[in-house]
């Protein structure tokens, strides 16, 4: 059992609904174990600039339902400079921090690994990102809420698309991963889903998209038609794709870019529960000596996974749903 007296905590990268629930779980679990918690603000920026405060149970009261993160988040290019990681480690050491908990995505974990080269204490990650692109955990904190937010938007767009018998392209986030697009597209009954894991669409070959549209029109006549497009799927973006499709089929295609709406909002129950479980487990695992691990959940069980491997391979999106969507969903 490692003797941990002082833990530091930060949220980094894109904020995700449920980060506050994870902060709460860390603080309450640590308090129960008589461990002090220091919260760095604005991700790694706060760690480099020594912007921190003590977090007590009363500071995390009534935050479990709040989106965003009370610690704020940021992307921090300064950590990626040659001197950044050492300065971060020096600051942790100077404050007598025995262990650091980083809530973020695989980029944040890469940052943590850099700090670990100079830091004597323990480091553990908690996966918090809407993208669900972190290996070693079935779901990341924030993903379930992002699906529901995207789904709500798709349902609303369907209403107007249906009334006008229009074709809509709805762009969803995910950076280079199609998790949100596949899940929200399936749940929203999208006629087509375009995401990096399916196939590459090029301006020279739009037939993969236009053929199913023409087929649907033969079958159903004019009707609403929704294409969910993961961001970064087409050169020039989804608006450019809508314009190219309009030209190719002679029917106006409209683009709707959902954007950062997907990062906000009150976390759904599944995210609050996952965040509570992983935040608490991170503290317990540190006390048992865990270092350079991520606290994840696989098959409902908490698990540790090497931080260094979390971004190694692309976590595969559900092959069963991929096959169904490609063979049946766009029929
Ligand atoms: N190779 C690296 N070396 C040092 N720091 C890094 C490295 N990669 C990422 N970081 C740090 O982690 C921060 C967050 O990374 P990134 O922007 O990739 O987000 P993320 O944690 O993957 O979350 P999300 O993808 O949800 O936004 C970066 O701004 C940077 O400070
Ligand atoms: O808010 P920013 O820095 O533009 O980042 C947007 C990116 O962050 C995410 O929301 C979370 O990683 C991605 O889905 C998206 O590509």
Automatic annotation (TrEMBL):
Residues 6-286 form the Phosphofructokinase domain. It catalyses: beta-D-fructose 6-phosphate + ATP = beta-D-fructose 1,6-bisphosphate + ADP + H(+). It holds the Pfam family PFK. InterPro entries: ATP_PFK, ATP_PFK_prok-type, Phosphofructokinase_CS, Phosphofructokinase_dom, PKF_sf. Keywords: Allosteric enzyme, ATP-binding, Cytoplasm, Glycolysis, Kinase, Magnesium, Metal-binding, Nucleotide-binding, Transferase. Its main location: cytoplasm. It comes from the Bacteria. This is 6-phosphofructokinase. It comes from Alishewanella maricola. The lineage of its organism: Bacteria, Pseudomonadati, Pseudomonadota, Gammaproteobacteria, Alteromonadales.
